[in-house]
Amino acid sequence: IKMAGDSSFPDVDSDGSEKNEEMEIVVNVGGVRQVFYGDNLNQYPETRLAELINCLSGGYDSIFSLCDDYDPGKREFYFDRDPDAFKCIIDVYYFGEIHMKKGICPICFKNEMEFWKVDLKFLDDCCKTHLSEKKEELEEIARRVQLILDDLGVDASESRWKRCQKYIWKFLEKPESSYPARVIAVLSFLFILISSVVMCVGTIPDLQVVDAEGNRMEHPTLDSIETACIGWFTMEYVLRLISSPNKLHFALSFMNIVDVLAILPFYVSLTLTHLGAKLMELSNVQQAVQALRIMRIARIFKLARHSSGLQTLTYALKRSFKELGLLLMYLAVGIFVFSALGYTMEQSHPETLFKSIPQSFWWAIITMTTVGYGDIYPKTTLGKLNAAISFLCGVIAIALPIHPIINNFVRYYNKQRVLETAAKHELELMELNSAEGKAASSKSELEDLVREGKEGPFYSSRLKVSHSDTFIHLLSEEKHYRTRLQSCK
């Protein structure tokens, strides 16, 4: 291999008679040799391989700016890159598109494409989907790590109210942050269960009392327990609203709307009970109060705040709208067809229960879903045959979309567990890198501090490794060291 100071130069005629289209170069990537011709490479002149053709006349400085090593005798360029990814990338010169092989990290493959200066537009759409999914995962990991770092770091420039607000938010929203926060989460969960049990038990006639007008009402003890639970829910919601970093987003969140719907009926019914009698008839007030009490069932959805399983189920159903739409479409078509057939076949029987096609919808629904209440049933032979075919088709229609929905739930659940584990590993790696970065300077700092006699609280703070000093890819443009997110391992 000739050095940069060598005056001789590789195999290019001084008069430039050798044309780029007829040139032949050899590229060695990680031990894999590949021969390229100029006519193929010049199709994409902005790529690194195409630049190799023109770099020979620019000297060794130009050559080594593009490759890791060069053999002028063989006219062979050496690259210390991934050969598997390179085999995929060179397809762009022959087929005009690139397919990423299985087992290659999408982010690493994107970095390889950037190194070879191949535009991402040549990547096939199916491979772009994998790349976008990987980017979303890394962004989610970065977001989770940043939230943890924000909780660990304390900004001294913040006011006392801001620090108190952040502490209340973490105390109520993040049970994993401390032991008292876990206790509060358990208490909130118990209050939800108690309130739901009281709502159900209050409807038992033996536990109800009769007022002066002879109307049944809930037992005073149960009413007191209900009031205490509503007081807890109200205090919890107000504190979370006050400490929320983004109050508009907090108020419009689905789970927070559920919290309002669980609390509001109590205060509205209380207002109607004390003031509504003066504005409307007493019977109308009682009907309105009973209707509002039914809205208390919304508080059972508050359990989703403390259950990761329910949250996962909700997100999985949101991602399964297509499958759920197919299920409803299959059932709707079957209900319409079999209800019309059942009505037509049962008209010959004098005691038919199928009075109209809309009324037959109910029979078709409970038949196709294999519920079968028996309030409406066919009496003719053809009608019974139609019923048998309808519930067989119903079983098939329901079973077909269920498997994709279950797969979506399992995939999302496993993905959340992987992201949670990856975020923890990233924090551990960041803390380790931060400690290694400061270990080299800690000895000299210790000697300086001892020499200057600076001991005490300032002394310990200088030596302490802070979590807020760590670094995370996707959140900072600096590249001090490689992290798990950068290497995609």
UniProtKB/TrEMBL annotation:
User: Could you tell me one molecular function GO term of this UniProt entry?
Assistant: voltage-gated potassium channel activity
Entry function:
Regulatory alpha-subunit of the voltage-gated potassium (Kv) channel which, when coassembled with KCNB1 or KCNB2, can modulate their expression and their gating kinetics by acting on deactivation upon repolarization and inactivation during maintained depolarization. Accelerates inactivation but has relatively little effect on deactivation. Coexpression with KCNB1 or KCNB2 markedly slows inactivation.
Per the record, the similarity remark reads:
Belongs to the potassium channel family. F (TC 1.A.1.2) subfamily. Kv5.1/KCNF1 sub-subfamily.
Question: Which gene is transcribed and translated to give this protein?
Answer: Kcnf1
What is its quaternary makeup? Heterotetramer with KCNB1 or KCNB2.
Alphabetically, which GO biological process terms does the record hold? Answer: action potential; protein homooligomerization
Organism for this UniProt entry: Mesembrinibis cayennensis
Q: Which residues form the Potassium channel tetramerisation-type BTB domain?
A: 25-126
Q: Where is this region: Disordered?
A: 1-20
Which residue numbers delimit the Ion transport domain? 182-416
How does the protein's chain sit in the membrane according to the entry? Multi-pass membrane protein
The yes or no answer to whether the keyword Acetylation is present is no
Which keywords accompany this UniProt record? Cell membrane, Coiled coil, Ion channel, Ion transport, Membrane, Potassium, Potassium channel, Potassium transport, Transmembrane, Transmembrane helix, Transport, Voltage-gated channel
> Which spans are transmembrane here?
183-204, 248-270, 324-341, 385-406
Which Gene Ontology cellular-component terms appear in the entry? voltage-gated potassium channel complex
Q: What is the name of this protein?
A: Voltage-gated potassium channel regulatory subunit KCNF1
Locations listed in the record? Cell membrane
